[in-house]
Design goal:
Elements lengths: L8 H4 L5 H12 L3 E4 L4 E3 L3 H20 L5 E4 L21 H13 L4 E5 L6 H6 L6 E8 L22 E6 L5 H19 L3 E6 L18 H16 L4 E5 L5 H15 L15 H18 L6
Parallel strand pairs: 3-8, 4-5, 4-7, 5-6, 7-8
Antiparallel strand pairs: 1-2
Helix pairs in contact: 3-4, 6-7, 6-9, 7-8
Bound molecules: zinc ion (ZN).
Length: 307
């Protein structure tokens, strides 16, 4: 294990409070245990180091892309990060890997327009909170109905202050299949990306929306993921000088991760690897509800974007 990759304490402090970082360190040092009862987030004595490695991997990836050492990167790390807020661990997340990567781009490279596209099945409440009041990061999330968890990510949450209009939430109903999901990507996500013109694209790449994943209620097929990445790569090529880093978030069907991640990496490397899999049943009721929600999101976001 290359411990040099660990995010430094100063790097962690760009997103998390010192008190929180110390608490995690002490909690792990004393043997770990249940860190967040509500979401069953547990840590072991090694978790402080491992979480710092995950964060450090994301930071290193964006750094290498900025320096031209890589065209793009997919960071395969755990624990995930998008539920971790400034001072709270949640949903299996300790440090917010993608937020730390975005902060690195802002602080080290003075980028002031960064896109975080979150395709995990759950709303990235931590990421949203961290960048809620800034226009330097546009946070767009597609996720399942967040009423039960994490109770944020509703349509009306659009940012505040300078960040007004720079948070876009697309909460889709349970049972949503590819066609409604893709409609949301095409009619909301893509037009907003074209208008924002990000200097760097980050993807919170969660694969738990897959229909066989038991931790979410979305019903996406394997085919949606290469399709989304292809669209994002095209945007990155036209708008962001190909600067694209994806960071693994959720996805708990390990056999699926084993199949889908190499396909995504192949595509990012210019290859043409394909996935073969069964498709979930189409859910008409979910489709109708999803289309209604897509229209509501558009109406809300029309204040900020041409849609
Ligand atoms: Zn998730």
């Amino acid at each position: 294990m290359n411990l040099e990759l660990q995010a430094s304490l100063d790097e962690l402090k760009t997103v998390h409070s010192s008190r929180y970082i110390n608490m995690i360190r002490e909690f792990c040092r004393r043997g770990g245990g249940l860190l967040d009862e509500e979401t069953g987030t547990v840590v072991s004595p090694e978790s402080f180091t491992v979480a710092r490695l995950a964060a450090g991997g994301a930071i290193k990836a964006v750094d290498m892309v900025m320096k031209g050492e890589l065209k793009n990167a997919f960071v395969i790390s755990r624990p995930p990060g998008h539920h971790a807020s400034r001072a709270h661990a949640s949903g299996l997340c300790i440090f917010n890997n993608i937020a730390l990567a975005a902060k690195h781009l802002i602080d080290r490279f003075s980028l002031n327009r960064i896109l975080i596209l979150d395709i995990d099945a759950h709303h990235g409440n931590g990421t949203q909170e961290i960048f809620y009041d800034t226009d330097e990061v546009l946070y767009i999330s597609l996720h399942e109905d967040p009423s039960e968890f994490p109770e944020s990510g509703f349509i009306h949450e659009v940012g505040k202050g300078e960040g007004m209009g720079y948070t876009v939430n697309i909460p889709l109903p349970f049972g949503t299949t590819d066609s409604a999901y893709w409609k949301a990507v095409k009619s909301i996500v893509m037009p907003i990306i074209r208008q924002y013109r990000p200097l760097f694209i980050l993807v919170s790449a969660g694969f738990d929306g897959y229909f066989r994943d038991t931790l979410s209620e979305l019903s996406l097929s394997a085919y949606i993921y290469p399709k989304i990445f292809q669209a994002i790569m095209n945007s990155a090529h036209i708008i962001s000088r190909d600067r694209l880093v994806a960071v693994l978030e959720g996805g708990y069907r390990t056999r699926f991760l084993r199949n889908i991640i190499p396909v995504i990496i192949s595509r990012m490397a210019g290859g043409e690897a394909k996935i073969r899999d069964n498709r979930p049943f189409f859910n008409m009721e979910a489709q109708r509800m999803a289309e209604k929600i897509i229209e509501e999101v558009k109406e809300t976001q029309l204040r900020f974007w041409e849609l």
